[in-house]
Design brief:
Distance between the termini: 86 Å
Radius of gyration: 29 Å
Oligomer: single chain
Shape: globular
Helix content: 25-40%
Structural class: alpha/beta
Number of strands: 16
């Protein structure tokens, strides 16, 4: 006779869950007993159900259904990661998973723009009402009043360690005391960062689903997702989706731009090593190439163009010179939303300049041209994320159009004979592994009338060079660094054995006194004679002043 099976329940401290999961993984030092997280949501009677269904207009594609079948293979919800290209419908896949579980959902995003987009996706594809889908951001602090609902917030709102408002603290306490049925983690590749991985211990959830297009990190911490979230459940092939018309057919091109004689001479000088990046980014030939491509796609093809630049100084100079709007980290949320709205729906704004804040979680399906003028060294993930901004299928691409016809374009402008060429080759490796090929263009401006382009005259080029050489560190000379990416960059440098870098600054800037002045002035409390008399007048000495009351009766107690 078979012995009756006994189920043992063991509770693990929240602070030790991550360590226990990592210890159970296979490999060196591991127990080779990986923990499988499954949620029996159908038999969960403790947590209230969320009556949520997909609208009839929501049609899942074959690969989306296959990815969900991997998650719900045995009637339970498995925690893990689904990898789909940008524009392939990750949002609808996540919403469909939430509909299947029918419990309270916590959706985590990178920024407030993606929070608005995810809330819109829940209202667009499901029958939920507006009061059931709430936002928790710096501008909007809401929590659904019903027993179950959907809450969309950012990683930073949960991991912030500074002071909070009373309302934000109250909502956070309610979130921590609640048992969430499903935790959706958008752009899950950022979770291994030291700050963002704290959300796993802060929030209690039965099932975690991570969504990303690029399961890669430069600091080699992407394997930590196996015990932080779960295994990779499904990954779609990019070119297979292109062949079926689900993604746009993109022409990738690397445009080589010659360095002018004056700029290259300054680039080679040892004393300008801190400004070499700015010199090859602000190369006048690259500037003219960018302007030519923008005008060509705007006027002749009527395309929507996004120009990416990690360097803030270059972002401003390019955008202001070409009279185009630009977005970067310091741009207010309202202004950012307004610029993106005009770019999507207005024919007057056909080109925007954007920093690395646009790499992730920004939905711009109208864009079909990317021009990259400055990037983050050799980051492979960033190259793929930026390509993903134009991967959404264009009108007429679903089964239509000629075979091999390109309806989207990705240009990477590279200054020739500089370090940028090495970085560009490394950045392309992830896309090459996916099956993409880069076409090299070496003489784009040979047949172009350069007289109408900016910085075509020698005196304008020398004036630009003088401005670059005299710009200070306080004018945001370097690249924009976002939270999480900074940790990845530091960890990569440590593993590679690179030394720390130094930057010239002032004591005034280090102490937070930049732009401040010191002044002395009289209070006007009285005349100098009155002030001198006040100093001479002293209060009688009190031996028991600021002493414990017991010391007053010390002699009494000693008797």
């Amino acid at each position: 006779e078979e012995e009756a099976l006994t189920t043992h329940a063991v509770e693990i401290l929240p602070s030790m869950v991550e360590h226990v999961k990592q210890r159970c993984l296979p490999g060196k030092g591991g127990l080779n007993y990986p923990i499988l997280e499954e949620y029996d949501f159908q038999n969960d009677k403790k947590n209230p159900d969320l009556m949520m269904d997909l609208k009839p207009t929501a049609k899942l594609r074959s690969y989306q259904q296959k990815s969900l079948s991997k998650m719900f293979s045995n009637g339970r919800a498995r925690s893990g990661v689904i990898v789909l290209p940008c524009g392939a419908g990750k949002s609808l896949t996540g919403v469909s998973a939430a509909v299947r579980v029918k419990k309270s959902v916590l959706c985590l995003c990178l920024n407030s723009v993606s929070v608005d987009q995810w809330r819109h996706q829940f209202l667009l594809w499901t029958n939920l009402q507006e009061h059931q889908v709430c936002k928790f951001t710096a501008e909007n602090k809401q929590l659904f009043s019903t027993e179950a609902g959907v809450l969309v917030t950012t990683y930073s709102m949960l991991t912030h360690e500074g002071r909070r408002s009373e309302e934000a603290s109250r909502i956070l306490r309610e979130m921590q005391s609640k048992e969430w049925g499903l935790m959706l983690l958008d752009e899950v590749h950022v979770v291994p960062a030291e700050t963002f991985r704290k959300v796993i211990a802060i929030i209690k959830s039965h099932c975690k689903l991570g969504l990303t297009a690029t399961l890669v990190r430069e600091d080699n911490l992407i394997d930590h997702l196996n015990f932080l979230i779960g295994p990779k459940l499904y990954e779609a092939n990019w070119l297979d989706l292109v062949s079926h018309g689900y993604l746009a057919n993109v022409q990738c091109a690397e445009v080589w731009c010659e360095m002018t004689k004056e700029f290259f001479a300054e680039y080679m000088k040892k004393e300008n090593r801190r400004k070499r990046e700015l010199l090859y980014v602000m190369n006048p030939i690259k500037f003219m190439t960018c302007q030519f491509l923008v005008e060509y796609h705007e006027r002749q093809r009527r395309d929507k163009v996004i120009v990416f630049s990690d360097n803030i100084f270059a972002l401003r100079e390019y955008a202001l010179k070409m009279r185009r709007p630009f977005i970067y980290g310091a741009t207010a949320h309202n202004e950012r939303t307004r610029i993106l709205h005009h770019f999507k729906h207005s024919s007057e704004v056909n080109t925007i300049f954007i920093s690395r804040v646009g790499d992730n979680s920004i939905d711009i399906p109208e864009a079909n041209v990317i021009i990259q003028i400055a990037s983050h060294a050799g980051a492979r993930r960033q190259e793929a994320q930026r390509l993903g901004r134009i991967l959404r299928p264009k009108q007429g691409s679903m089964g239509g159009g000629k075979t091999g016809e390109f309806n989207a374009f990705f240009y990477s402008l590279v200054s020739k004979d500089t370090q940028e060429m090495f970085y560009s080759t490394k950045r392309q490796q992830f896309l090459i592994d996916q099956g993409y090929a880069f076409k090299v263009i070496t003489s784009l401006l040979d047949t172009v009338d350069r007289g109408r382009l900016h910085y075509s005259k020698k005196e304008d080029q020398l004036q630009l060079l003088s401005k670059i050489l005299t710009v200070g560190h306080e004018q945001q000379l370097g690249d924009e660094v976002l939270r999480g990416d900074q940790e990845e960059q530091i960890r990569t440098l440590r593993e590679g054995g690179a030394s720390s870098s130094r930057a010239m600054t002032s004591l005034q800037a280090l102490s937070g006194g930049a732009g401040l002045t010191y002044r002395e002035f009289k209070t006007g409390a009285g005349t100098s004679g009155q002030a001198a008399a006040a100093k001479k007048k002293k209060k009688p000495y009190n031996p028991y002043h600021e002493r414990n009351h017991l010391f007053k009766f010390r002699k009494k107690y000693q008797r």
